[in-house]
Write a structure and sequence with these properties.
Blueprint lengths: L6 H7 L2 H9 L10 E5 L7 H6 L3 E6 L2 H10 L4 E4 L10 E7 L10 H10 L1 E12 L5 H13 L13 H10 L2 E14 L5 H9 L9 H19 E2 L2 E15 L1
Length: 250
């Protein structure tokens, strides 16, 4: 994944990630007692919700920091270190993934989905939500413009596909798409400096090689330009677009 996590700050200031993820669980049709993997489990806050639904659940994540937090909070749940591209387990009944796949480079997604499918039993399901086409586009556009004005190249560190783009990749992996949805979800950020906090948590990769003073100046300018469109009554919203799929392993 294209990010290193501040696990404590993520857990404290970005709880909306797992709270929205609870809604994605409604797409799971597997009965209680099924073995379900939470792929990219992070701090375990959704993994425990899956367990509360009666699933035999395992959390998998590639971040040592996140796994340490998850194991500390939920010691009765199995958490293991693994990369979405190459993890291997005994085939399970379902794989669930929330807010993870957009962190993986576009060219790796067919291999990613092939690996996910290989870890699901025939007839099992894959349920996921991640950033979809147009996600946070106003933020990325503003940052790109400011970078270029300062003579820098802006690198967007995410993959946000459309349904038409991603559906064939799922099918090529032997996953039949049963449900697909792309929708806008403007997402509230915490605090008076919510947009700055979002950039510093999720989008610092483009700033690599820049000093802290220039980084702050760019972020401040982005906040100034975006305030009229993303700040309402003193509250910052990032213009999220989400994509959801439910698939069956053929």
């Amino acid at each position: 994944m294209n990010i290193s996590w501040d696990a404590d700050r993520y857990s404290e200031d970005f709880q909306f990630v797992h709270k929205y993820g609870e809604d994605v669980m409604e797409l799971l049709h597997s009965p209680a007692g099924s073995r379900v993997v939470d792929l990219g489990c992070g701090n375990g806050n959704l993994t425990v919700k899956l367990a509360e639904r009666g699933y035999n659940v395992t959390g998998i994540d590639d971040s040592e920091e996140m796994l340490e937090t998850a194991k500390r909070k939920y010691s009765d749940i199995e958490f293991i270190k693994g990369n979405a591209l190459d993890f291997k387990i005994e085939p399970c009944d379902a794989i669930f993934s929330n807010a993870v796949l957009h962190w993986i480079d576009k060219e790796k997604h067919q291999s990613l989905l092939n690996n996910i499918a290989s870890n699901i039993k025939k007839g099992g399901e894959f349920v996921c939500e991640f950033g979809g086409y147009g996600c946070a586009e106003r933020v990325h556009t503003a940052l790109r413009e400011i970078f270029e004005e300062r003579g820098h190249k802006y690198r967007k560190n995410f993959y946000f596909p459309s349904i038409g783009e991603y559906g064939p990749l799922l099918e090529n992996a032997g996953l039949r798409v049963k449900f697909a949805c792309l929708f806008d979800r403007p997402t509230l950020q915490q605090g008076d400096n919510g947009l700055e906090g979002w950039i510093r948590m999720f989008n610092l990769a483009p700033f690599e090689g820049l000093g802290e003073e220039e980084t702050r100046n760019i972020i401040d300018e982005a906040c100034r330009r975006l305030k009229p469109v993303l700040c309402r009554e003193g509250k910052w919203f990032v213009d999220y677009v989400r994509i959801r799929f439910r698939c069956i392993k053929l």
